[in-house]
Write a structure and sequence with these properties.
Blueprint lengths: L2 H10 L5 E3 L10 H12 L1 H4 L2 H6 L2 H12 L10 H12 L4 E8 H11 L4 E5 L8 H11 L4 E4 L5 H6 L2 E5 L3 H10 L2 E5 L6 H7 L13 H5 L6 H28 L1 H5 L16 H22 L1 H19 L7 H21 L5 H28 L15 H24 L1 H6 L6 H20 L7 H7 L1 H19 L4
Length: about 500
């Protein structure tokens, strides 16, 4: 239908009530699924009750969830083009009603928040307002003449009875079916997530952290061993796919907090550019492939991956809400990657390396927290939502993070003086140039953090920052020269 004919139809229908669906239409997300996630997050034991509630019927199921979840609609993502259109119709005097299968408590909150609707039709503990049941209630409320805005095949019986349809994010199959049974007043096309959106959802840039798996290969100077290098590449993808799966679950677990964050609100699941069911399916597939790859390397490496998944899930679901415990866990997760790399290629790890890793990654984790608190302070907020941190904590976190960075440098200095280092390196004293590079790089990160120029993740910042890239490259070259070249 062209724009002029759509405009003509809209003018003709302006006196006909407009019925608007909620889930998938007014908002691209599903409030029921989000309510279940919030329910389990608030009280995991309630998750065990879900199958029993379902036995009592879908209406009771939704009612039990809604009354316990405490769903918040203030930061819910809405389809802004549709909302703007509804505002325009409202100004013309058109009657607009929200009709949804979501529970009434959620529907009423949305209606109050948007201030658009003249009435609300929703599910309660006795009736699930979906499909033909929704159509019956619409007819009881507004009569036989109405225009319906929906998004899914479940709405076809309602569209068939409507004077006209408003299509919102429908698939091509559903769109064709609707066009055969009713005129189209307006269409808001589906925007499918592109490759960039999926890269952000899976946090592919965070795969850089898994390069730590290669550290034992480098410290053993076995990077020319084709067999070990191949094993490490497989191990890298196993950890990376598992990490992406946990990132998806973490984002779903943290939806409400992310939507309140100045930058995280634009994440694909927070703004609902990727739906929750699709995200869960992709995460499950990635995790399955990761475990298969790990099993192909060795049982020991598979156990290390399972340990990593367990610890990172515990961090995401529980420990990240506790001050300092979260950053300590992050430093251990980074160190675990190094241990996993050693297990993959069966090489021993130095106690110097592990101590250095714990200190430097504790410092980097504090960079991340301080960066978030600086951003919150600049936005005029006092505390981080979902984490036990306040902007006033910076007075303690600054010296703690810088002190951890200096401890890492001290450990590296002791490593240079150790007898085993002197024996393995041709010119071990050249490693002091690496120590100087570490001091500069870590100090640079903390200065950028204090200025509010730090990315949420310091490793991502290091990748984009030319000064960091040059310093890291120089440290790698100095390490190679110190190992392979003997200077009398």
């Amino acid at each position: 239908m062209n724009q002029s004919s759509s405009s003509t139809l809209n003018t003709k229908n302006k006196s006909i009530p407009l019925i608007v669906d909620l889930d998938g239409t007014l908002t691209p997300t599903d409030t029921l699924i989000e309510s279940i996630i919030r329910l389990v997050k608030n009280n995991p034991l309630d998750g065990l009750k879900l199958p029993f509630w379902m036995l009592s019927g879908r209406a009771v199921f939704k009612s039990n969830i809604a009354t316990r979840a405490g769903f918040s609609v203030e930061n819910l993502p809405y389809r802004q083009p549709l909302v703007d259109y509804l505002h325009g119709e409202k100004e013309k005097g058109r009657r607009i009603i929200l009709a949804t299968a979501a529970h009434r408590s959620i529907a009423d909150s949305v209606a109050k928040h948007l201030g658009l609707f003249d009435g609300v039709l929703a599910s309660d503990e006795k009736r699930n307002l979906k499909g033909k049941t929704k159509l019956e209630v619409i007819r009881e409320t507004v009569g036989e003449r109405f225009v319906y805005a929906g998004d899914s095949a479940a709405d076809l019986p309602i569209w068939k009875a409507a004077e006209a349809a408003i299509l919102v994010g429908t698939s091509s199959r559903v769109s064709k079916a609707v066009r055969r049974i009713t005129p189209i007043e307006r269409e808001f096309p589906r925007i499918n997530p592109g490759g960039i959106v999926w890269l952000r959802a899976l946090r592919v840039h965070q795969w850089l952290k898994n390069l730590l798996l290669f550290v034992p290969l480098l410290t053993a100077f076995s990077f020319l061993d084709g067999s070990k290098l191949t094993t490490m590449i497989v191990a890298f993808f196993a950890f990376s796919l598992a990490a992406s799966a946990t990132y998806v679950v973490n984002d779903l677990w943290d939806l409400e907090n992310d939507r309140s964050h100045p930058r995280k609100r634009n994440r694909p699941f927070a703004n609902a550019s990727i739906t929750i069911p699709i995200g869960i399916s992709v995460a499950a597939g990635a995790m399955m492939v990761a475990l298969i790859l790990a099993a192909c390397i060795s049982n020991g490496f598979l156990l290390m991956l399972i340990l990593y998944i367990t610890l990172t899930s515990t961090y995401s679901w529980v420990l990240k809400e506790y001050v300092l415990i979260d950053v300590l866990m992050l430093s251990l997760l980074y160190t675990l990657r190094i241990l996993a790399g050693a297990v993959a290629i069966s090489v021993p790890t130095s106690s110097w390396l592990l101590a250095f890793s714990v200190f430097i990654f504790f410092s980097l984790a504090l960079v991340k927290r301080c960066s978030e608190l600086v951003s919150l302070g600049q936005a005029g907020r006092e505390a981080a939502r979902g984490r036990d941190y306040r902007v006033t904590d910076l007075i303690v976190l600054w010296p703690l993070g810088i002190g951890a960075a200096l401890c890492a440098v001290v450990v590296f200095g002791l490593f240079i003086s150790a007898a085993e280092t002197q024996a393995r390196y041709g010119s071990a004293q050249l490693l002091w140039f690496v120590a100087i590079g570490l001091i500069y790089w870590l100090a640079r990160l903390w200065i950028k953090t204090a200025r509010g120029e730090m990315h949420d993740d310091p490793l991502v910042f290091a990748l984009k920052d030319s000064g960091s890239r040059m310093t890291i490259l120089a440290m790698l070259l100095a390490t190679l020269v110190a190992h392979f070249i003997h200077i009398g």
